[in-house]
Amino acid sequence: MALRAASLLPSAISLHKEGKLNSSLKEGSFNGAFLSKNVKSDFSSLLIGTKELRRKSSLGPIRAQTATVAPSINEATQDGKKTLRKGNVIITGASSGLGLATAKALADTEKWHVIMACRNFLKAEKAAKSVGISKENYSVMHLDLSSLESVRQFVDTFRRSGRPLDALVCNAAIYLPTAKEPTYTAEGFELSVGTNHLGHFLLSRLLLDDLKKSDYPQKRLIIVGSITGNTNTLAGNVPPKANLGDLRGLAGGLNGLNSSAMIDGGEFDGAKAYKDSKVCNMLTMQEFHRRYHEETGVTFSSLYPGCIATTGLFREHIPLFRLLFPPFQKYITKGYVSEEEAGKRLAQVVSDSSLTKSGVYWSWNKNSASFENQLSQEASDAEKARKLWEVSEKLVGLA
Ligand code: NDP
Ligand code: PMR
Questions:
Q1: CB burial class (10 A; 0-12, 13-18, 19+) of residue 201?
Q2: Residue 135: what are its φ and ψ, rounded to 5°?
Q3: ipTM tops 0.95
Q4: Which atom of ligand 1 is nearest to the CA of 124?
Q5: Contact residues of ligand 2, CB 6 A cut-off
Q6: Residues 251-258: contacts with CB within 8 Å, 24+ apart?
């Protein structure tokens, strides 16, 4: 019987349809570049650097979430043979860019049911339609990572669906490079770190139990990282550089009142806050690996999918940046990848049987072959990862 999710959980709508500087050269082929100390992470720096370096109606009716019974790992077919059931993967931020392309790549295999965990329900539904994901291979569930209450509600609603969880992809992110002042999540954390790191931290901690219960042969938890959080690369050396310092701002609540809105306790800088959040994502993946890989068998991974210069991530940047960034990445750094190609890469990390190693930060070379990349010193600092874990636990109410 169909359950009216809206009446159970008012704000949770659900539509059920069935390295190193050198190593950066591997990630793109940016040759012999000299990076000025004064290069800033804004449009002018891109120019300087370039020079220097030479509904509703179309959607149909919204149906409430249907309670499903968890199928066992092997489903008997009519002729008596047993086949592996479809995997279930949650992808946050699947309404555009990398998340949407990954949802498409996985759904098209017919081996995955994708749960698109999105803050804008109708946008997600339209996006799925626009790329032609077939109805039986996806569901949309509401998740706003900038509210811990929404994260908890999402987990509750997902559990009520009765679906097993076989893979979780923490992909959603916001980037606010032109913000002059910090803005905040529902619980009062600076918005970029609050969304990209703390929202995902709570989500993945809660859903680890669900992954543990799954009988799927390969269970995976992936947190999307980036080159720009890694200061052992050229891209990671474009100011402002990521730096979590001693985490004093985070420990103080990141609220801009009795503490700084920045993790390291410094002045607010939107571009730095994003890069810091990516360092948190990569540290969290490794801490998960250290704490839970052996016990649970879950594979924990992160990745840099390439520079997907056309996505919505840059929507807050000035128009000229948005115009010049794609050709800059295509023709100058050669780090550009299309959304489709990046989606295939992330889909590999979700399901390819050769990428089962846990604790790895994956990247791809210019022939699109995956390799285990090296993280910067800070992004691989085990002591910092432990401290980040403990402080984050307190902030999201798990400790
Ligand atoms: P997009 O802006 O296209 O996608 C980001 C997604 O996150 C959107 O679906 C957006 O939803 C969602 N989102 C934002 N805020 C929230 C929130 N509060 N709750 C739920 N969902 C939210 O950017 P990309 O596809 O480029 O980014 C995806 C990932 O890839 C990010 O982790 C980013 O750091 C990473 N990455 C991107 C690179 C690039 O070059 N683009 C390079 C390296 C890594 P909505 O559609 O409603 O806005
Ligand atoms: Mg970068 C190999 C060189 C390389 C690569 C792969 C990237 C990726 N970038 C490179 C180099 C440079 N960038 C250089 C030399 C400059 C100075 C001109 C430069 C500038 C620049 C700016 C202003 N780059 C940027 C910005 C952004 O606003 C983007 C950003 O930092 O978002 C956080 C960005 C990026 N460059 C990349 C990638 C992947 C990004 C975007 C996003 C991300 O990490 O998620």
A1: buried
A2: -50, -40
A3: yes
A4: 46
A5: 24, 27-28, 30, 33, 35, 39, 41-42, 45-46, 49, 53, 175, 177, 226-228, 234-235, 238, 271, 274-275, 307, 333, 335
A6: 251/391, 253/188, 253/189, 253/395, 254/189, 254/190, 254/193, 254/194, 254/395, 255/184, 255/188, 255/189, 255/190, 256/182, 256/184, 256/190, 257/188
Nearest residue (by CA) to ligand 2, atom 41, is 307
Distance in angstroms (rounded) separating the CA atoms of residues 284 and 339:
25
Q: Tell me the mean pLDDT per 10 residues along the chain, length 399.
A: 30 35 38 34 41 35 38 57 86 98 98 98 98 98 98 98 98 98 98 98 98 97 98 97 98 93 98 98 98 98 98 97 98 97 98 97 95 98 98 98
Query: What pLDDT is stored for residue 248 in this prediction?
Result: 97
Whole-angstrom distance, CA of residue 341 vs CA of residue 97: 11
d(CA 268, CA 106): 38
Question: Does residue 134 contact residue 17 with C-beta atoms inside 8 Å?
Answer: no
Question: Measuring CA to CA, which residue among 263, 93, 264 is closest to residue 193?
Answer: 263
CA dist 165 to 67, 173, 257, Å? 15, 22, 39
Q: What is the pTM of this model?
A: 0.88
Token output for 257:
């009142």
Q: Would you state the pLDDT for residue 305? A: 98
